[in-house]
């Protein structure tokens, strides 16, 4: 639709062509995927740069400038990059980051919260081990993390990556740089989110969970124009009840319209009010 043509930057004249424009794009949308994801429709940096086409296999494709931008921006505190939504690579504006953090299993004490999470079964043993290395040693690349945690074998690779993704999705760790380590001479350098963004816990502390869901849901609907409650539940990992409550509050404020019938589909659609006003 024409609305998404604008928000996804699909028109050639609207394409992102510099890293500064990339930061502006993320700030406009609040959060985007790095690559397009089949199972979740959301603006992505790749599409905003290269157009609506599959991610190219060729390393010299012009669209892969996004990779260089992403690496160059690690640690620069211009956006939050980590595997967050659907545990896929996500770019989050610093304005939206406190709302995600407010919904995480972090309660204000980085040295103690992870232990509580572990006792509650919310953190795997592998994730706990990785977190404790970073807590003790500071920024460490993936090669060092695998060595210190004893997950260097090929058989442990999946457990290591799953643990890292769990920590990233819960705003506990994030990549902050690249080192020339390992067989490929390329490894992410990781740090604790609370170390890299020391003000983030305080920024999130005053945000109620209900307000955080309202804000993030609104940004999502605003990016797509229209979404279903089922899609929102899958993207954020919220219960349908949590989506319904946030949607009802946004509808009461006039920010979105609930229950619109689109393409004769009986889903529970959420439509941004701006789109209905245009039509």
Can you give me a brief rundown of this structure?
The protein is an alpha+beta fold and 279 residues long.
What is the number of beta strands?
9
Assembly type of the chains comes to: single chain
Q: What is the rounded distance between the termini?
A: 12 Å
What's the order of the H and E elements?
HHEHHEEHHHEHHEEHHHEHHEEH
Low-confidence stretches: none
Q: Tell me the fraction of residues in β-strands, as a range.
A: 15-25%
Structural class designation: alpha+beta
Strand order of the largest sheet: 1-3-2
Computed CA radius of gyration, to the nearest angstrom: 19 Å
Please tell me what the overall shape is. Answer: globular
Measured as a percent range, the helix fraction is 40-55%
Number of domains: 3
Report the sheet with the most strands, covering strand number, pairing sense and barrel closure.
3 strands, antiparallel
Let me know the average pLDDT: 94
Characterize the structure shown.
With 279 residues, this protein is α+β, with helices and mostly antiparallel strands. The protein has three domains: 2-95, no CATH class; 113-204, Orthogonal Bundle (Arc Repressor Mutant, subunit A), CATH 1.10.10.10; 208-278, Orthogonal Bundle (Arc Repressor Mutant, subunit A), CATH 1.10.10.10. It is built from 15 helices and nine strands. The chain has helices spanning 2-7, 19-29, 45-50, 65-73, 97-102, 113-119, 125-137, 142-148, 157-169, 193-196, 200-205, 209-224, 229-236, 240-252, 273-278; strands at residues 31-33, 80-83, 89-92, 140-141, 173-179, 187-192, 226-228, 256-262, 265-272. The strands form three sheets. The protein has a three-stranded antiparallel β-sheet. A three-stranded antiparallel β-sheet has the order 4-6-5. α7 (125-137) packs across α9, α12 (209-224) packs across α14 (240-252) and α13 crosses α14. The radius of gyration is 19 Å and the shape is globular. The two termini are 12 Å apart.
């Amino acid at each position: 639709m024409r609305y998404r043509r604008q928000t996804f930057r699909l028109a050639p004249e609207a394409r992102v062509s510099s890293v500064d424009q990339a930061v502006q794009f993320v700030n406009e949308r609040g959060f985007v995927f790095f690559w397009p994801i089949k199972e979740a429709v959301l603006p992505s940096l790749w599409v905003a740069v290269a157009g609506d086409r599959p991610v190219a296999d060729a390393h010299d494709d012009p669209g892969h400038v996004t990779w260089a931008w992403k690496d160059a921006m690690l640690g620069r505190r211009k956006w939050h990059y980590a595997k967050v939504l659907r545990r896929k690579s996500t770019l989050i504006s610093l304005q939206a980051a406190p709302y995600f953090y407010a919904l995480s299993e972090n309660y204000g004490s980085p040295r103690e919260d992870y232990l509580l999470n572990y006792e509650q079964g919310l953190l795997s043993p592998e994730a706990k081990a990785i977190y404790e290395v970073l807590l003790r040693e500071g920024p460490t690349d993936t090669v060092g993390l695998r060595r210190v945690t004893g997950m260097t074998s090929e058989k442990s690779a999946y457990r290591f990556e799953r643990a890292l993704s769990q920590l990233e999705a819960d705003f506990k760790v994030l990549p902050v740089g690249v080192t020339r380590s390992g067989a490929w001479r390329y490894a992410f350098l990781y740090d604790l989110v609370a170390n890299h963004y020391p003000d983030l816990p305080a920024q999130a502390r005053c945000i109620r969970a209900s307000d955080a869901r309202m804000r993030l849901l609104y940004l999502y609907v605003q990016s797509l124009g229209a979404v279903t409650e089922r899609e929102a539940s899958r993207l954020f990992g919220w219960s349908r009840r949590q989506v319904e409550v946030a949607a009802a509050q946004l509808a009461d404020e006039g920010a979105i319209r609930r229950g619109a019938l689109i393409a004769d589909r009986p889903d529970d659609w959420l439509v941004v009010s701006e789109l209905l006003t245009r039509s």
